[in-house]
Amino acid sequence: MHLHIRPLAWNDIEAIARLHRASEPIDHGGRIRDAIALLQRWRRPGFVLEHCLVAEAAGAIVGYVYRSHLEGTEVCQIDGVVHPAWRRRGIGRRLLERIAGDARLAGARLLDVRVREDEAAAVAFCQATGFRVVRVWHRMWLEPVQVPPFALPPGYGLRSFRPRHDEAAYASIVNQAFAEHWGMGRTSAEHVAAMVREPGFEPADIVVATCEAGVVGLCRVRFVEREVGGRCLGVGHIGSLGVLPAHRGRGLGRALLATSLRRCRQRHIRAAELDVDEGNEPAIRLYRACGFENLFRILWYRRELKR
């Protein structure tokens, strides 16, 4: 088998989308299957074309891997996939070693990858290539979507995101609220501006909590398709639910989550999901109190890069 590994080009996007469509029924990784949506996502600030390598065989792209560095750390996170018909031929290993070498040359000391615990092949691949589990997240699930009751404390309000106004505030809240969260990188106003320009985004998909000091918390819901138990469902993925430390313990997190779930109901979405670090007990208590249950575990694997 002749395998050619090269950097991604923008005209490869349709081939990558086809690769996602072939792998998703098996992997359930949540990868974007539509070429236009994928192009919009990858054209966000921070995506570096040269950091994505594709593997070609028999005139087609049969796999890829992408690396992204967590700002201010020696950690490089990777993600990728090999076409199901081309697995067990050493393609994943060759892509991994190439990207590991590039990451090492760029100054990274650690390589991280996230894998669903029930993806037996991916787990075996990580174990066979020198990775070890260093962190565990939980994917939590709510079906049907129910809106829990909540009460805002005096002096606080909720409203929808305002494009061309709230981008800097969004980035600031994420960077402060998630500063101590494992595996989270920093974002920027430019990144947020690109995010809200993506097809299908509506300002009501982000709710912010405000007081006299300004924006002090936020929650975003993103609408995706998932295959769960043999069913294809429209799902609301709850992400970036954060409140500034000085304003926690007042019920703002519950209010933000409830408002995002109400948004799901408005869109006639039947189920909601979110990811949470298993060490974040306050967040897990909140989610369980709002009806979420554990669906599966996400394993974060890490490998040290030799100098």
CATH topological fold name of the largest domain? Aminopeptidase
Largest sheet: 12 strands, mixed
Spell the H/E element sequence.
Answer: EHHEEEHEHEEHHEEEHEHE
Alpha carbon gyration radius: 20 Å
Please write the CATH class name of the largest domain.
Alpha Beta
CATH homology-level superfamily of the largest domain: Gcn5-related N-acetyltransferase (GNAT)
Strand order of the largest sheet: 1-2-3-4-5-12-6-11-10-9-8-7
Architecture of the largest domain, CATH level 2?
A: 3-Layer(aba) Sandwich
* Overall shape: globular
| Average pLDDT taken over every residue | 93
What can be said about this structure in brief?
With 307 residues, this protein is an alpha+beta fold.
Entry keywords:
Aminopeptidase, single chain, alpha+beta, 34% strand, 8 helices, twelve-stranded mixed β-sheet, 2 domains, 307 residues
What does this structure look like?
The protein is of the alpha+beta class and 307 residues long. It has 2 domains: 4-108, Gcn5-related N-acetyltransferase (GNAT) (Aminopeptidase), CATH 3.40.630.30; 140-298, Aminopeptidase (3-Layer(aba) Sandwich). It has helices at 13-27, 35-42, 91-105, 120-128, 167-177, 189-196, 252-266, 281-289, and strands spanning 4-7, 52-57, 60-69, 75-82, 110-116, 132-142, 157-160, 206-211, 214-228, 231-243, 271-277, 293-304. A 12-stranded mixed β-sheet has the order 1-2-3-4-5-12-6-11-10-9-8-7, sandwiched between helices. A hairpin with a 2-residue loop joins strand 8 (206-211) and strand 9 (214-228). It starts with a strand and ends with a strand. The mean pLDDT is 93.
